[in-house]
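Archive entry. Fields below.
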Amino acid sequence: MTNGGSDPTMNVLPTEECYRLLATHEIGRIGVVADHYPLILPVNYRLDGTTVVIRTHAGTILHAAEHANVTFEVDEVDRAARSGWSVLIRGQAEEVTEAHRAELVASTEESGVQPWAPGDKGHWLRLITHEISGRRIVPGELPALDPRAYL
Amino acid sequence: MTNGGSDPTMNVLPTEECYRLLATHEIGRIGVVADHYPLILPVNYRLDGTTVVIRTHAGTILHAAEHANVTFEVDEVDRAARSGWSVLIRGQAEEVTEAHRAELVASTEESGVQPWAPGDKGHWLRLITHEISGRRIVPGELPALDPRAYL
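PREDICTED_STRUCTURE:
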């Protein structure tokens, strides 16, 4: 629905490209409804296969994300070139348990990346993806530096 | 609530600093609840005094934002330095009318910035701010490159 192909300013990305782009970043934003607002909060993440794993502190996110629909967004915009992309996951979040954690550490070791673990202050969430979508942002949509968009 | 000062990984920014930071960027993200998810969508914006003016295309955002609580987020993270900031506005969005538009063009001319106008494809929204908050992201909160966060 959001990615209606009839909109000429929007290029829909295939799923594989969405995951490829997610793997190139480590800071995203989680969307959670809390206090009647769709809050947007930057979070650290990593991709474990096709699973987004988010590090956050206890508080708003953990409380609001429990048993609720959340989103996760990553984007990259080149202001000079007026181009970029964004990827949005719709899903649910669950806190990583001790059992999950051991499994995640193991899969991370296998990938050759130094494994991680949360410190005392940290909590880890896994996203259960319902849907992933992405798009390329084309100049017509972000015209701040385009004189044709000005009076 | 979100900005509880008791959290040692979070430095709350004063309101004036939030607006100063917003003025340094032109790409943000609007949060709207649609289809039971808190959708996050990158948008072009500019600051008109302390009012955020957002350019978007017709569709999900306009439809979902009408008469509903929305949020607007801008952030900047230096991955190498593990530092950054984020600003979040809670508010409502209203579409810029013809009357508003003339006023905005006038205020933009006065500011010395080249005035803008939406093309046929564009719609402009003004945010009515209920609350603005910001924080500095400190290394403990985004530890992806911090070896102390790893096993």
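CURATOR_NOTE: The mean pLDDT of chain A is 74.
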